[in-house]
Specification:
heterotrimer, A alpha/beta, B mainly alpha, C mainly alpha, B: MetI-like fold, two-stranded antiparallel ribbon, 13 helices, C: mainly alpha, MetI-like fold, globular
């Protein structure tokens, strides 16, 4: 690695035909201490589609999602075996900072920083050395527009982000994640803290966003998965039970367990 | 439930007696609290009374009445020659506290960052233990350490073995004494932050330090300031340890001017000096009650008390603004 | 949309690494400071420490004195001050946790506790001198010292009591009331036993602080000791170890002042180490017991 220059070279991201998997997990096992959370999950996640991951709480769906940008490493030392790929490259071998730039994440509860709206969205670009005023302005506007928040906040960019409503805060977090121009967006139950109207707005967003992005969304809300996703994967006790096109999963599931779960006859 | 429930539960029906006891106990507890309140007020009252004696003719005074001006704007402290300027002590206190806060503030906050964000679990336990011990060491023990170990070391290093009592030694000792306070309050500040802030920053590609510097520290800022102000309050009141290493020289301002064979920095760091607290320890036992000299010393005590009160009110104001 | 040049900066990575190293250095620096202070104190005091030092009376002019009465006074004063401050401190703590309703008055009480606990010990010393030594004419004595020391302990104990009581799970309280217990019965039979671990460690900590206190005692218990041993008289002068350490050094008439001070400091550090270990064991045992 030529450390003599101050900017690290990045592998040029190869072009991706939409039919190829952008993210792939192969026999992925994750254990915190003696507790195995994921027990060998294999799943291909295609580009420019919304993939929903459903399953009862504690099934490992959140951990599974977090593995794709390795944010799970923050919750303590985890033992990960198997393989996770981003565009065919081993994700565990990538530098986490670069990985997380390319694979953004939105959390369960909106977590805006206690800063202005502008500084929240500009946070990411600044991390990666964007300093020019016009570049930053552009990135902020771009992020906010894509998150359908621009019109609501364009006149008060200097206001504190804490003053926004819950739904606005969550869209701000989406804008913040989009401002670093990621290729994948991971969403961990992004609407669980929101009211139905705010939820609907976010679901609408997914349709627009998937033109540019690959989206993986964890949800416990069956209707949301049915409405907003193209593909659905059902996880149970750390194992993948079934995955496929959302329509198939919801109308004609291959396993009785899946049917039990989506029809609410579970546990 | 796995928690054991205290045994010996009385199943007697409520008797009037127990109700009386109930009411009586409530009064008793209230009285305890009122005792505490009374202590505070008599403390303020007595200090104000004796301190005021320096400036107002009170029965029992044995000396002349001083003016506020000559005391609080005076630079010359020579009680035997009827000169009672206390500015050297005020400047001395501010200098020592300023120096030690300049060291202990950043170090304390950074240590708290380390313990809460970076240290592995075992190191966290070690740091907690170390801070407990540092805060438990009595101030006279710090004092004798300063006198027997730190002063000779500083003297050998910078002054060719000459006496090295003064601001530097005092500030170093004081730093070690107040850092545990700042660390533990700053740790509370960081632990009160939601984990999602760090996660949010890291998910955007922050390094650990970028998350700390640009999200966590700004978010915890008001509480960090409170921590440092409380540390400052402790530092202002510390007496014995500093008294043993500062050199106790009320004339330090003129001496600092006269020590021309040293560089200004060395003069500043190593001139024997005095502070509000050290002066009290040093001279109070030698003065006759109700003399002007004695009264001024009580006025210094009152000033000291007002300064710590001020730091508490300041932290309250800070935490209210946060809420 | 403009494609930004978003690449991880090597400078960020270098900064990250450098700061991690710096933070480790700061932390290790404090551990080193602790070890240096403790080490220097124990090393200098070790040659002096022996049974004779602990069991001999002090000398006034000659070398070779011991600290027997000071050791006794330290323990006696801590015990007396705790006897005085425990009822008030715990009582006030119970009031604050269980009786006081949130409001102006309670806010004011809390301010008083906070203020008293932040009062510099030299200011408490002035108060003790004015009130106990001079106004009540108790002179420099055990009783003056014990009262002044109690003032130092009260706010600590109040706060510890309040915090430990608030730490008791709500369900326990509700269960007790549900069985028809009165408030006092609930406090005495449920809350205090459940809060005992916190109270006990808090008390040991207060004792530790009182044991090491010097400024307050210089002006209340005085810098002399009774020449009879053991002297339980409340009117006797009561120089403690901490005061003795300070006094021999600043008075300077003893030829072996430094040695005496070093020995005394070592004794104090050892006592505090023992107390620290006791707190830790107590804490662990009581917590296990409560589980």
């Amino acid at each position: 690695m030529p450390d003599s220059i101050l900017i690290e070279p990045v592998m040029e991201a190869p072009l991706h035909p939409t039919d190829r998997a952008r993210l792939r997990a192969e026999n992925l096992r994750v254990a915190y201490g003696p507790k195995e959370v994921l027990k060998g999950v294999s799943l291909d996640i295609p580009a420019n589609q919304v993939t929903a991951i459903i399953g009862p709480s504690g099934c490992g769906k959140s951990t599974f999602l977090k593995c794709f940008n390795r944010i799970h490493e923050l919750s303590g030392p985890a033992k990960v075996t198997g393989r996770i790929e981003l565009d065919g490259r081993d994700l565990m071998a990538m530098r986490e900072v670069e990985l997380r730039r390319r694979v953004g994440m939105v959390f369960q509860k909106p977590n805006p920083f206690p800063k202005s709206i502008y500084d929240n969205v500009a946070f990411g670009p600044r991390l990666f050395g964007v300093r020019g005023r016009s570049d930053l302005d552009g990135a902020v506007e771009d992020g906010l527009r894509k998150a359908a928040l621009w019109d609501e906040v364009k006149d008060r960019l200097a206001d504190s982000a804490q003053g926004l409503s819950g739904g606005q805060q969550q869209r701000l977090c989406i804008a913040r994640a989009l401002a670093v121009q990621p290729e994948v967006l991971l969403m961990d139950e992004p609407c669980s803290a929101l009211d139905p109207i705010a939820t609907a707005r976010i679901e609408e967003l997914l349709f627009d966003l998937k033109r540019e992005l690959t989206i993986v969304i964890v949800t416990h809300n069956m209707q949301q998965a049915a409405r907003a996703s193209d593909r659905t994967a059902f996880l149970w006790l750390g194992e993948l039970v079934e995955e496929g096109p959302t329509e198939t999963i919801f109308t004609n599931p291959g396993k009785p367990m899946t049917e039990d779960y989506i029809t609410g006859r579970f546990g | 439930m796995s928690r054991s429930f205290p045994k010996s539960f009385s199943s007697r029906p409520r008797l009037p007696l127990s109700l009386w006891a109930d009411r009586g106990a409530g009064t008793l507890f209230l009285i305890s609290t009122l005792v505490l309140v009374a202590l505070i007020f008599s403390l303020i009252g007595f200090l104000a009374w004796r301190g005021a004696g320096a400036f107002i003719a009170l029965p029992g005074n044995t000396d002349r009445v001083l003016s506020l001006r000559e005391v609080f704007l005076g630079l010359d402290w020579s009680p035997t020659q009827d000169r009672f300027g206390v500015l050297p002590f005020i400047f001395g206190s501010f200098t020592v506290v300023g120096l030690s806060i300049a060291l202990a503030g950043p170090l304390g906050v950074l240590t708290a960052v380390f313990v809460t964000q970076i240290a592995p679990r075992w190191m966290r336990a070690v740091m907690r233990q170390a801070m407990d011990l540092l805060v438990g060491i009595p101030s006279v023990v710090y004092g004798i350490f300063g006198l027997a170990t730190l002063l000779p070391f500083l003297g050998d290093r910078w002054l060719d073995g000459q006496p090295s009592a003064g601001f530097l030694a005092s500030a170093l000792i004081l730093t070690v004494m107040i850092v545990p306070t700042i660390v533990s309050l700053s740790m509370d500040a960081f632990e009160a932050l939601p984990r999602s802030l760090d996660e949010g920053a890291r998910a955007l590609g922050s390094t650990t330090w970028q998350s700390i510097a640009s999200v966590l520290i700004p978010a915890a800022w008001p509480r960090l300031v409170t921590a440092v102000v409380l540390g400052m309050g402790r530092a202002i009141g510390e007496a014995m340890a500093i008294q043993m290493v500062i050199g106790n020289n009320p004339q330090w301002i003129s001496l600092m001017r006269d020590l021309t064979d040293r560089t200004p920095l060395l003069r500043f760091l190593f001139t024997p000096a005095s502070t509000l607290t050290t002066e009290l320890v040093q001279e109070l036992p030698n003065t006759a009650a109700h003399s002007a000299w004695n009264n001024v010393l009580f006025a210094l005590g009152l000033l000291l008390y007002l300064l710590t009160m001020g730091s508490i009110l300041l932290t309250r104001r800070l935490s209210r603004r946060r809420a | 949309m403009k494609k930004l040049d978003l690449r991880p900066r090597l400078s960020a990575r270098i900064m990250d690494g450098a700061m991690k190293v710096a933070l480790w250095a700061v932390a290790l620096g404090f551990i080193a400071a602790l070890l240096v202070v403790m080490g220097a104190i124990l090393k200098q005091g070790w040659p002096v420490l022996n049974w004779g030092f602990l069991s001999k009376m002090p000398e006034t002019l000659d070398a070779g004195g011991g600290v027997r009465p000071q050791l006794f006074n330290s323990i006696y004063l801590v015990a007396l001050s705790l006897a005085g401050s425990l009822p008030i401190g715990i009582g006030a703590g119970i009031y604050m946790a269980e009786y006081a309703k949130e409001g102006r008055l309670t806010g004011f009480f809390r301010l008083c506790v906070e203020t008293l606990s932040a009062t510099p010990s030299i200011v408490l010393a002035l108060f003790g001198l004015m009130v106990f030594v001079q106004a009540l004419d108790w002179s420099f004595s055990i009783r003056s010292g014990a009262c002044a020391l109690a003032m130092l302990n009260i706010p600590i104990l109040t706060r510890v009591t309040e915090l430990s009581l608030r730490g008791v799970p709500q369900e326990m309280k509700e269960a007790s009331y549900g069985l028809g217990a009165t408030k006092l019965q609930t406090i005495l039979r449920v809350l205090l036993p459940a809060a005992a671990p916190g109270l006990l460690t808090g008390t040991v900590l207060a004792a530790g602080r009182a044991f090491g206190e010097s400024a307050v005692l210089v002006f209340t218990a005085g810098t002399n000791t009774s020449m009879t041993y053991p002297d339980f008289s409340l009117k006797a002068p009561g120089e403690t170890l901490a005061v003795h350490l300070w006094y021999v050094v600043s008075d300077g008439t003893l030829p072996d002042a430094r040695e005496i001070a070093a020995g005394t400091a070592a004794v104090m550090v050892l006592v505090l180490l023992v107390m620290n270990i006791v707190v830790r064991l107590l804490d662990r045992r009581l917590k296990r017991h409560a589980r």
